Amino acid sequence: MKICTYAKKCGGCQYQGIEYVKQLENKQEKIKSLFKPHTVLPIIGMDNPYYYRHKVFATFSLSKTKKVTCGIYEENSHRIVPIEDCLIQNEKANDILKSICEIASKLRIQPFNEDRGTGVLRHAYLRVGYHTNQILLVFVLGQQVFPGSKEFMKLLRQKHPEITTICTQVNARRTSVVLGEKEKILFGKGYIEDVLCGVKFQISSKSFYQVNPEQTEKLYSKAIELANINKNDIVLDAYCGIGTISLIVANSAKEVVGVELNKVAIKDAMINAKLNQIKNAKFYAEDVSYFMRDYVQEMKDVDVAIIDPPRSGSDENFLTLLASLKAKTIVYVSCNPITQVRDIKVLEKRGYVISTIQPVDMFPFTEHIENIVLMVRK
Predict the structure, then answer these.
(1) If you ran DSSP here, which 8-state letter would residue 48 be given?
(2) Which pLDDT tens digit goes with each residue over 324-369?
(3) Where's the active site on this chain (predicted)?
(4) Considering the entire predicted model, what is its pTM?
(5) Does 215 count as an annotated binding residue?
(6) Mean per-residue pLDDT for 15-36?
(7) pLDDT for 239
């Protein structure tokens, strides 16, 4: 087992110092406890639980020796813990962050000081393609002007020619929000492409795309297997994000309907459908409850529903309307099993029973658990 030297300060990983097998046992027991008396399938873990995060954020600061460092905020504080080698972040991302700090120190480019409102470098955000190895790098700046940016980018690209595209955003506000509103592309196309379950996806800085692609493939493959979709099925994908599940199941279904409140995500979903020449997937930027109300009134059909809501879960209005469509199966994917249990009770009162429960470990060394529940009509 690898030992994290930052564990006591960082607080990002609640299970650091615990053997991975034991972590999986703990998570399995949590799901069993929540879903008593139902049988829970063995949790799907990782073969190698290290360096799995392909989405990385870092915040810049100045050390006591006046060197530029970067890391993450200490738990429950606004102090930055400098981190050179995070055991759960992609190794290439770790290397690039280290180089950024070295080059910034060499060129005397100052980190942004939130209290004084001075300095330049505030955050770095990286996306590393799992299958393509393409790299998106976004610098979030504390001011519009980036002195020495040409020399900085030249040295960085010499050191890391594998970087696919570099962008800058400005965020000088006193806020916990990392990214700025407007983006400037310095190099490349401003996005990368990756492949998930055989489908190509375009990923920009504000695209929602899973942090752990290796486990995401296992999660979605299992969810789709449980859904048992055939060529005559109409599939509803609620809270669809950028259409990952929608586009993966499209070739197996008659039609897929994806619904998501975030307009940027729906725009990405449409781009990704075009990218893969998928024509039987339709996407709607709407609140799922409002969409479902209209869908029911129009007496449209759904054979299979896949729902993947945020941590807060779904809501009773949506679930009641969904149940009224009498889909043969509902696959509920959740990043918060506590709200999942609450929502499932609503569906159980409206004619559905639990058939299969499958936990997946998406975030080793943390307390988070992803869980799939297959429900069928009585």
Answers:
(1) S
(2) 999 999 999 999 999 999 999 999 999 999 999 999 999 999 999 9
(3) 335
(4) 0.93
(5) no
(6) 96
(7) 96
Residue 289: what pLDDT? Answer: 94
239 appears as a binding residue in the annotation:
yes
- Domains present along the chain, CATH in parentheses: 12-48+212-377 (3.40.50.150), 53-191 (2.40.50.1070)
CB 192 within 8 A of CB 203: yes
Q: 308: how many CB neighbours lie within 10 A of its CB?
A: 23
Query: Which residue's entry shows tokens 């049988």?
Result: 39
What does DSSP assign to residue 169?
E
Tokens of 143: 């001011």
In angstroms, the CA 280 to CA 327 distance is 19
pLDDT tens sequence across 151-198: 999 999 999 999 999 999 998 877 667 788 789 999 999 999 999 999
C-alpha span between 295 and 287 (Å, rounded): 12
Residues noted as catalytic: 335
Strand order in the sheet with 255-260: 281-285, 255-260, 234-238, 304-307, 329-334, 370-377, 352-360
**Dihedral sign (CA 57, 369, 285, 129):** positive
b/e code 199-223 from CB counts within 10 Å (16+ = b): bebbbbbebbbbbbbebbbbbbebb
Structure tokens at 217: 């493939």
Total Cβ atoms within 10 A of residue 174: 7
How far apart CA 259 and CA 289 sit, in angstroms, is: 10
301 is written with which tokens? Answer: 């059909």
Nearest C-alpha neighbor of 243 from the set 294, 300, 191, 284: 284
Q: In sequence order, what DSSP letters do the residues of 268-337 get, joined into one string?
A: HHHHHHHHTT--SEEEEES-HHHHHHHHHHTT---SEEEE---TT---HHHHHHHHHTT-SEEEEEES-H
Give SS3 for 197: coil
DSSP SS3 for 348: helix
